Amino acid sequence: MCANYTPSKREAFSHHYGLERAIFDVPPESFPGYLAPILRESRAVTGQAECVAAMFGMVPHWADTKLSRQTYNARTETVATKPSFRNAWQRNQFCIAPAENFFEPNYETGKPVRWRIGHADGRPLSIAGIWEWKADGPDGLPLLSFSMLTINADAHPLMRRFHKPDEEKRMLVLLEPQQVQGWLEGALVNDPAVYRPYPAEQLMAVADPLPPRSQAKPPQASLDLNA
């Protein structure tokens, strides 16, 4: 389950998605409750995408923003029926969270160590998600929020190595460039190809632990997929 990731920078939006990111500040890393850029189908021009700021973690109209700490990921197996997600799913409110990388805990040393996962060729990861709208968000202003979709990864060569040994392994739904527009429009919601595990050989992972505040960041170490 992904609770921490690095949103794509402005240049990536222009080069890989053909549009400029809206002008708003985002943190270097995003956590549940933070605002981050997402892509969704334009509300003004059919067939085009737009970039908007949304809270990481789904906040339905009936919920407080604190719920975002529990709704940042949505299981594809239950997204259509869970109260927090079903309205967005039924209304085809699909989005993509463009990311430089995301972080997961690795327990192979016996203790949780943060690892950073990204695309092997350095291009952005297009994470499939759903978005929701709440009229009375913080300070009485409307709020957009989103959740990232996940699938089972028990057999995935890379993602099965993260999270606690006795937990089910999950991974984000990662889209290919040619799937982006179809996902945003809702045309690919029933396409099995969307929900297949992303190939491990197209991903890279390195140890990226958070250093003590008084110490320098330790050197990175590659994760051996063949171990």
Tag the structure with descriptive keywords.
disordered C terminus, 5-stranded mixed beta barrel, 227 residues, hypothetical protein yedk fold, 3 helices, mainly beta, 8% helix, 11 strands, single chain
What this model shows, in words?
- By secondary structure, this protein is mostly beta strands.
- It has one domain: Alpha-Beta Complex (hypothetical protein yedk fold).
- Helix content is about 10%, strand content about 30%.
- It is built from three helices and eleven strands.
- It has helices at about 10-15, 85-90, 180-185, and strands at about 5, 35-40, 50-55, 75, 95-105, 115-120, 125-135, 145-150, 170, 175, 205.
- It has a five-stranded mixed beta barrel.
- A hairpin with a 7-residue loop joins β2 and β3.
- The longest helix has 8 residues, at about 10-15.
- The model is unreliable at about 215-225 (pLDDT under 50).
Count the domains: 1
**Cα Rg:** 17 Å
Strand order of the largest sheet: 2-3-8-7-5
Number of helices: 3
Major β-sheet profile: 5 strands, mixed, barrel
Second-tier CATH architecture: Alpha-Beta Complex
Shape: globular
What pattern of helices and strands is seen along the backbone?
EHEEEHEEEEEEHE
* SS elements, strand count: 11
- Mean pLDDT, rounded to whole units? 89
Terminal CA distance:
22 Å
User: What structural class is derived from the secondary structure elements?
Assistant: mainly beta
Strand content: 25-35%
CATH topology: hypothetical protein yedk fold
Q: Regarding CATH, which class?
A: Alpha Beta
CATH superfamily (homologous) name: SOS response associated peptidase-like
State the share of residues found in helices, binned by percent.
Answer: under 10%
Q: Low-confidence parts lasting 5 or more residues at pLDDT below 50?
A: 214-227
